[in-house]
């Protein structure tokens, strides 16, 4: 019997092979048009997405950058500036709303360059996760990609307070996926959290990482 694959055993070549079989080659045509949303801030509460929220959700895309370090894969994350209006001071993937005429991939790559100076030539797209509906009104398409370890982040101070890497094996270990609760808009809401040292990874970012874990390792 084949033993389950361990995240700590993966190198860049192994991740490429796994991504080909587990990730979508392109965002679903329904990513931004479907009246339903299976993944999102509502899902852990056992709720259906509110039709009004789904209809009004703005399309966005993020890059989930996995750095191919020789000593082990890492995930590049950012700490958003406290000056931003949305999700300020939170840990996030590079990303943002899709501009008119852009594809989700173009948006994810453009935002990564604008936020941390990540050039598209250092990025190898691997595939797409499920879209994620946020409570703040975005439907996010996450693009998983390998990043050349030669990349050195240069955070844009207007948007990013810091850029840092977290071990892929840590984030893909279900034992590190905590379910927490807090009150938001008059209701107790559940969310994933994956604290790592002084970094509190939670909410949308942790939800997308959980989806990556489910796609690759379950």
Would you write up a description of this structure?
With 218 residues, the chain is an alpha+beta fold. The protein has one domain (7-217): Nucleoside Triphosphate Pyrophosphohydrolase, CATH 3.90.79.10. It contains five helices and ten strands, in the order H-H-E-E-E-E-H-E-E-E-E-H-E-E-H. The protein has helices at 12-22, 51-56, 104-116, 168-171, 203-217; strands spanning 58-67, 74-80, 91-92, 95-97, 123-128, 132-133, 138-147, 160-167, 178-184, 187-193. A hairpin with a 6-residue loop joins strand 1 (58-67) and strand 2. The longest helix has 15 residues, at 203-217. The radius of gyration is 16 Å and the shape is globular. The mean pLDDT is 89.
What are the salient characteristics of this protein?
218 residues, alpha+beta, single chain, 5 helices, 28% strand, 8-stranded mixed beta sheet, Nucleoside Triphosphate Pyrophosphohydrolase, two-stranded antiparallel ribbon
């Amino acid at each position: 019997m084949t033993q389950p694959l361990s995240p700590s055993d993966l190198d860049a070549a192994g991740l490429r092979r796994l991504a080909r079989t587990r990730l979508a080659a392109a965002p679903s045509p329904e990513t931004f048009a479907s009246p339903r949303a299976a993944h999102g801030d509502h899902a852990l509460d056992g709720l259906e997405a509110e039709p009004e929220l789904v209809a009004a959700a703005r399309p966005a895309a993020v890059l989930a950058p996995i750095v191919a370090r020789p000593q082990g894969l890492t995930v590049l994350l950012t700490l958003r500036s406290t000056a931003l209006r949305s999700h300020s001071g939170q840990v996030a993937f590079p990303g943002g709303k899709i501009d008119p005429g852009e594809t989700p991939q173009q948006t994810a790559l453009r935002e990564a360059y604008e936020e941390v100076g990540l050039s598209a030539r250092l990025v190898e797209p691997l595939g797409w996760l499920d879209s994620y509906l946020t409570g703040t009104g975005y439907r996010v398409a996450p693009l998983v990609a390998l990043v050349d370890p030669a990349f050195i982040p240069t955070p844009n101070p207007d948007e990013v307070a810091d850029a840092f890497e977290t071990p892929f094996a840590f984030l893909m270990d279900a034992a590190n996926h905590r379910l927490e609760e807090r009150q938001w808009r008059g209701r107790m809401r559940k969310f994933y959290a994956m604290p790592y040292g002084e970094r509190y990874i939670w909410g949308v970012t942790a939800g997308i990482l959980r989806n990556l874990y489910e796609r690759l390792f379950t």
